[in-house]
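Q: Start with the shorter request: fold the first protein.
A: Done. Sequence, then structure:
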Amino acid sequence: MSGLNGLFGVGSNALASFQRAMSVTGQNIANVSTPGYSRQEAILTETLPENGNPGQIGTGVQVSEIRRSVDSFVEQQLLNSNERIGQFGASQKALSQIQILFNDANDQGIAAGLNEFFKAWQDVATNPADLTARTVLLTKADGLTKLLNQASSQLSTQRISLDGQVGSSINDINALASKIADLNAQIKLTEVGGQQANDLRDQRGRFLNDLAGLVDISSIEDGNGQVSVFVGVGQILVTEQTAFKLTGVPDVTNGG
């Protein structure tokens, strides 16, 4: 490539490269509010030069790669934050429901019933012959018994509800694990062919964050872009294109 034709070739390469870079910028702007989207960057590099006299002659510029602009440390911190939010959110919801059952915030629950019961006992101990004090004690004892029985029944109902929520969460976890394994396969197929699987990686990252909101996980990405996911103390959930299913097992030691 030399002379006028060479000049046109360099200009044509530059125009095509910058048009593609502008398309990447447009993609970033269009997805500025898309959850899980990672900003992309067009990497411009020199094209191969041609040999000439007295030396090589440049042939212009090209887009060699469209790269996701991500910080792996920040991604991991986001994953950890989603785990904590999920854990604290689930605990807060369950404890709030239990607090309503006991109704202690309004001084009408078990704590108040116990206080009244022991006060009645104190009155009887002070005046054993007082029939009114004895009657009050029996009334308070009966009221406390009803409160305890009611709380026991409501806690059983609450446990059944929580068991159902656990089962639903397990189904969600298994569905997300399957999606991550499928994306591992798509990412490998895409990147083996020399392309960048940016959008697929964004989808996988979004599913990982969703998964972290449901269960304590850790993840490792290998050199082929395949993510392995572990739950709890190291139980494998996803490895390459395989997802293992979690199952819920009732704990007989706590009644469910």
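Q: Next, the second protein, separately.
A: Sequence, then structure:
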Amino acid sequence: MMADLEARLSEIVRADPGLMQVMTTLRSLDIPDWRVFSGAVYQSVWNAQTGRPAGYGIRDYDVGYFDPDTSWDAEDVVIKRVAAAFDPPLRDMVEMRNQARVHLWFEGKFGEPYTALANTDEAPARFVSPAFAVGVRLEDDDSISVVAPFGLEDVFDLVLRPNPTRPVAKGWDKAVTNALGRWPELAVVDPAQA
């Protein structure tokens, strides 16, 4: 079933011109170990599942990459280089984050500990919800590779539940309210019942 859902996800991603432009541009920039994940991916699925147009509700494109240089200066160079590759409005919508340095700032910003990652594909396993934990990359052969540590069932079934491998995120209620405001069809699993 996972292979079928991955194939369907690839179809949905390919049908979204904004997401494809972001991935095509990122591939051309040769950013190390990059992947588009979170909102731009799961929201594209929700749009397809609910009959909404491609791009509906997508506010940004979260992109993780992995560079062992954990200095802010190195990350800033990548952020500026990527921004220069896009015209507005995408220039302001593509948000680059070096996953090698997230552990340096995450606890200070979100109040939760965050151990260092070994690569970009480890990041989605820490996201707030399994439905959010989906990432894609346009490979050199034009295939779309997928990382989904919890599978794709929740995202395709429009189910929001807390990530079972971590405490309920402090931002859980805000994330749920935000998502339901744009996709009222979502089924939300109460954290107490998860």
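Q: Describe the second briefly.
A: The domain at 2-157 is CATH 3.30.460 (Beta Polymerase; domain 2). The chain has one domain: 2-157.
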